[in-house]
Amino acid sequence: MRLDSTGRMAKRSAWIAGAIWIVMSLSGRARTYQWPTNASRLMTSSFGEYRKTHVHAGLDVKTWGQEGYEIYALRDGLISAVSISPYGYGRALYIRLNNGYTAVYGHLQRYTDRVEAALRREQIRQGRYAVTLGFGDAAIPVSKGEVVGFTGSSGNGVPHLHFEVRDQNGHPINPLHLDFPIVDRHLPTVSAFAVTPLKPGSHVSGDFIPEVFSVSWAGKGEYVLNEPVTAGGVLGLSISGFDRADGASNPFSFYCLRLFVNDSLLFESRYDRLDFQYSHHVNLDRDYRLMREGFGLFQNLYLSDGNELDFYNPRIPGAGKLACIEPGEIKETFIQPGYAILKPGTVPFRVEVEDFFGNRSVLSGDLELVPLQNFAASARSQYQQARVPGETQEYRVTLEYRPMERWIRYRLQSMAPLADIPDLRVTTPFCEDRPVLLIPRDYETFVGMLPWESDASGPVSMTVRWPLQDGLEQITREKVLLSDISTGWGGRLISSDERCQVIFSKGALYRSAVGLCRTEVRTVENGILGKVYHIHPDDMLMRRRALIQIEIPGYFGDVTRLGIARLGDDEEDIHFLGGEWENGALSAWTNRLGSFTVVADTMPPVLEYLRPAHGERVEPNVTIAAVFRDDLSGISGERNMAVTLNGEPLIMEYLHFKDTLIHPWELNLAPGNHVLELTLRDRAGNVTRAVHEFKVIDTERNH
């Protein structure tokens, strides 16, 4: 067991954890389940928390940045399986408990000797590091409290213990229901509140994008909005914050959330049970758009379309969504049975957030519900009554347009105050010269919204006219190609240069949307061949992958080194998707929209370190290891990181968080000369090979 000093703060926290342990042990009450480790009784993550691609299905336990603490069987049962992988849970252990539940332990350093021996035999049999071994009829009996392994950092490089409890159907349940001795006297903290327009004709403060509102602490467990929220149409509310437990500084997500409007409970989320097949719906549980725009994690207080997670009550379409709708303002087909239909005016609301132990905080505030037409009329009237002088000289007004779901949001920005509100008219495949109602945000900024008809794709022309002081006007025009992407039948986006297209199958999106593919010409650098295609809405969640195709006319290089890549938010972060070359075009699948380009990866992986070094003299128990990197397409799969020793394949553990390969077992090589060969192949087919000859000294003879 490796336990190193981690400083004064870690020692103090460990002392607190030990004190809590002693207090709970002296309570005198026998518990049905054994706490899973002697590392601590402190959580670092709770059940139901957000991960990029899934819901966190268990608890994480603090191990003080160390490895090697004991882990225990929760109760009597059988070790039914183990699995080992460079990713995910790393070294995982599965115990089928005598009540039909299954306990899962992840990120282990090692198992007991008996399990380690069985796992090694299976790895040798399969000739690979990553394996799953089910014991079947040879399952190993264990007793409650028996040591079954040791904590580690396998799979992600961060020392901690992840453990889950799954019911008889294999569904994870919140382990806190097993009455573990965790102390939590902290009230949850509310950080912010957000309102999102969900349908065409909906607005927040006269705009058509989500808005985040600040909150203030008003006393123990009480929070208030700093200002009323003015909004209308169909709205979704969400809340941001965190919880803590005694003895630990790690933030946790809320366990239970309740939305009350007019003192009536409309919606509740409670994180008790998870069905793995819907775990990827985590981005429907949180507000994905706010997260993508850098506002952090907000937990939705409504049931998002397509969300099949088990956390909510009620579970009818539209549950938790608020609707303040004037006749004809929103299509009847958009109205769902779970909507709370509200009249215009002041509506009080509150949000209760709780942790598992019943500590509760409350956010209270008012919603000023105003239909869009009424809000726009008031804002336009105030602007015109102000009689802004305006400008006599020519200057530029920029027009921005952003496809959302079933509407387009327009934003006009002038360089100086305007004498009157600009006029925006749009011609689409379903309407001609249609005026867009613009709402002043200030004397230089105006926003508007155009609902998009389903099954309509084609060119859209936009014309903006704005007045000058002397009665003259200026005009700007722009044209763009927009396409309908329907959940019912899919769709296709085509770039303005017609070199890029994205094909969506039926049901590829959770919600129908209007889409756009912008073209940007780039200089040839960092492997990028010259054009970037921006696919919008880039914050639209996908249920299934879409096929992206990019033509590269006149390319005479090696097409096997080409691949489609998605650019990260800083556009220096390149995610290589690969691709198939056919008829002058590359095709690749993507499960996320954003910015795409074609890259050429002609550089082989870089080997930074291989031990033993060439010509080195070593002892028989030498460690075989390699450190390498690949800066573009990356290396995937054990077969592309092959190591042989004297011509025989050698099983290697891949530590992806360190770009390191290491042989997992102790060697006892015979004295004499040996040959070590490493072959690295990246996803573009570039290969690096290294051959090291080294000599093992005869330690017995030297003694």
Give structural notes:
- With 703 residues, the protein is mainly β.
- The chain folds into five domains: 8-178, Glucose Permease (Domain IIA) (Distorted Sandwich), CATH 2.70.70.10; 189-372, no CATH class; 399-473, Immunoglobulin-like; 486-600, Chondroitinase Ac, Chain A, domain 3 (Sandwich); 606-702, Immunoglobulin-like (Sandwich).
- Helices cover 9% and strands 42% of the residues.
- The chain has six helices and 52 strands.
- Strands 1, 2, 4, 5, 6, 8, 9, 11 and 12 form a nine-stranded antiparallel beta sheet that branches. Strands 29-28-32-33-36-37-43-39-40 form a nine-stranded antiparallel beta sheet, with no helix packed on it. A five-stranded mixed barrel has the order 13-15-16-25-17.
- A hairpin with a 4-residue loop joins β49 (653-655) and β50.
- The protein is globular, with a radius of gyration of 30 Å.
- The two termini are 30 Å apart.
Name the features.
single chain, 9-stranded antiparallel β-sheet, Immunoglobulin-like, 703 residues, mainly beta, Glucose Permease (Domain IIA)
**What do the pLDDT scores average to?**
90
Compute the number of helices: 6
Low-confidence stretches: 1-28
If you compute it from the alpha carbons, what radius of gyration comes out, rounded to the nearest whole angstrom? 30 Å
Helicity, as a percent range:
under 10%
Give the biggest beta sheet.
Answer: 9 strands, antiparallel
Structural class: mainly beta
Distance between the termini: 30 Å
Task: Estimate nothing, just give the exact number of structural domains.
Answer: 5
What is the number of E strands? 52
Shape: globular
Percent of residues in beta strands? 35-45%
